[in-house]
Each structure stands twice: as structure tokens, then as C-alpha cells.
Amino acid sequence: MIRKSKRYKSWKRKVLHVRKEWQDEFCESIRDIATHPVVLRMKLYPHHGNSNCYEHCLHVAYYNYQWCKFLGLDARSAARGAMLHDLFLYDWHTHRKKTGDRFHGLTHPRTALKNASKFFDLNEIEKDIIYRHMWPVTFFRVPRTVEGFITTLTDKYCGACETSQRKPKQRKQVMLGSYQ
Predict the structure, then answer these.
(1) Residue pair 70/84 in contact by the 8 Å Cβ criterion
(2) In a 3-state reduction of DSSP, which class is residue 31?
(3) Phi, psi dihedrals of residue 81, rounded to the nearest 5°
(4) Which of 18, 20, 65, 153 could form a disulfide with 26 if both were Cys (CB 3.0 to 4.6 A apart)?
């Protein structure tokens, strides 16, 4: 029993060390993107639940990095692409009313890729992540890379978690708003 306890403590120390190392690598891999003035503008736009667009992209980038690192994939590109995947720079909640575009879910990946390409040199994995992250909504834009497919799953997971984190008052307002 004592040996198992020592092995467990040793294993736990190793895992914590690796997690800290991965966190540092993650931060370094997205630092230039996360601090860029255009990307920082994403903080101005609400996204899912109580999160803004920047927070959502940061969440997706972090989990993407973790999964891709664990699977031995290009975690750096996965994090960078995920940090830019929603760089559309408008409030999608009011976008339809202002522009008449009823298909934000279908059109924003192209807008995000266009914006990201203006400010950053993107590799093929990053482009795939940004352009194809809305699959299966964008039926024919299936991710071509494993990192892109992981981003698609991570994006849906983070969006669902963020949406479920609304404050009770907001849920009530949303429900009442649909009946008025």
C-alpha cells in the first residue's frame, strides 16, 4: 500500500509538471496573437452566454492545444488557428438586423479567415481551422486536418459550456423575450 502511494505521488508530480510546461508553451505560442490590437477588439463583442468573443476563442485555443499536444499533433498551429477562428469583429446577435445577413453561422468563417489573413501569416492548418470550424453546419466544408476536426469539436463544447453559464436572470429575460 505504501509503494502504491509513493508511485501515485510521483505520477501526480509528473502530471502537474507536464501541465505547467504545456501551459507555458501554450501562452508562448499565442502571445503575439492574443496581444494584437485587432484581436483584443474581440473583447468588445458578446458571444455565448456571459463570454465575449475573445474569451471564447481563448477557451477553444487552450483546449485545442491540450488535446493536440496529448495526441502528438501540431498543437501550436491548433492553438493559433483557434485563437483566430471567430475574428469576425461584429456582434452576431445584432448582425442580421443591421446587415440583412441571416446566415452568420455560414458566413463568419470566411470573414474570420479574411481578417486573420490581413494581420497574420497563416499556415495551412491554421487556415483549415478558421475556414472549416463550423462543420457540420457548413455541410461541404469538412475539416481537412485532424487539428481542424478537433477544433470543430472543441468549439462546440466550449460554446455549449459558455451558453449554459448564463446567469439565471439572463435566462429568465431570454425566455420572457421569446414570448413577448
Answers:
(1) no
(2) helix
(3) -65, -40
(4) 65
Q: What's the alpha-carbon Rg for the chain, to the nearest Å? A: 19
Contact 168, 49 (CB under 8 A): no
Polymer length in residues for the chain: 180
Note the pLDDT tens digit of each residue in 103-154.
655 567 888 888 889 999 999 999 999 988 777 766 677 778 999 999 989 9
Single out the residue of 37, 129, 119, 48 nearest to residue 83, CA to CA: 129
Torsion sign (Cα): 98, 103, 109, 114: negative
Q: Which amino acid is at 27?
A: C
Count of other CB atoms within 10 angstroms of residue 16: 10
Q: Which residue has the cell 502571445?
A: 31
83 Cβ contact partners less than 8 Å away, ≥ 6 residues apart: 30, 33, 34, 39, 57, 58, 60, 61
